[in-house]
Amino acid sequence: MERTGGCLCGAVRFSARAVPSTVDVCHCEMCRRWTGSALIEVDVAKDQIDWTGQDKIAKRQSSEWAERAWCSECGSGLWFSMSDDSSEWGGTYAIPLGLFDDPNGFEMRAEIYIDHKPDSYAYTANDRKVLTRADCVAKFPALGEA
After folding, report:
1. Engineered SS bond to 5: which of 59, 86, 100, 124, CB 3.0-4.6 Å?
2. Cα(83)–Cα(65) distance, rounded to whole angstroms?
3. Residue 125's pLDDT band (cuts 50, 70, 90)
4. How far apart are CA 86 and CA 96, in angstroms?
5. Distance (Å, rounded) from C-alpha 30 to C-alpha 114?
6. Rounded to whole angstroms, how far apart are CA atoms 136 and 116?
7. Rounded to 5°, angle at Cα 66 from 65 and 70
8. What is the dihedral of CA 6, 12, 13, 14, to 10 degrees?
9. Percent of the chain that is helix, strand, coil (3-state, to 5)
10. SS3 state at 54
């Protein structure tokens, strides 16, 4: 499926092809601080997305293993991406769901760092994979260094 979206001010826009119908949720401290709550994101292959307004995209290596990007005009978070494209979670941009022009029609697939989720909210999705921080570190040891 093809979808479009952009930041709050419209300075950065994207058009994405082969967009999956699933979202993942991350409750780690970095994602919570970056978004203000959990990062609800859609994984889009880097070669399936075209960006406009690239001169307004600011990036930061947020850890030894990942980068985050945002609009330098309005501050909207644009993506989270693993630095190593060959890793299981590499080769994609984790695009915040709220950036899509139409954020409907997605199904929650997984929640990670579930043991770091604040007790003030809970999602009601069924049949999703749930991983603790220990599960994530076991799968990707570099995460334990953060």
Report:
1. 100
2. 5
3. confident
4. 22
5. 14
6. 12
7. 165
8. -100
9. 20, 40, 40
10. helix
**Alpha carbon separation from 125 to 25, 95, 133 (Å, rounded):** 11, 20, 20
3-state secondary structure of 108: strand
Sheet of 49-52: strand order equals 3-6, 13-16, 49-52
The C-alpha atoms of residue 16 and residue 50 are separated, in whole angstroms, by 6
Chain CA centroid to CA 55, Å: 21
- Tens of pLDDT, residue by residue over 30-88, are 999 999 999 999 999 999 999 999 999 999 998 888 899 999 999 999 999 987 777 77
Q: Mean per-residue pLDDT for 90-95?
A: 92
Whether 24 contacts 112, CB under 8 Å: yes
Q: Position 93: which residue type?
A: Y
Long-range CB contacts for residues 64-73, cutoff 8 Å, separation at least 24: 64/142, 64/145, 64/146, 65/140, 65/142, 65/143, 65/145, 65/146, 68/34, 70/7, 71/7, 71/8, 71/9, 71/11, 71/12, 72/11, 73/7, 73/9, 73/11, 73/12
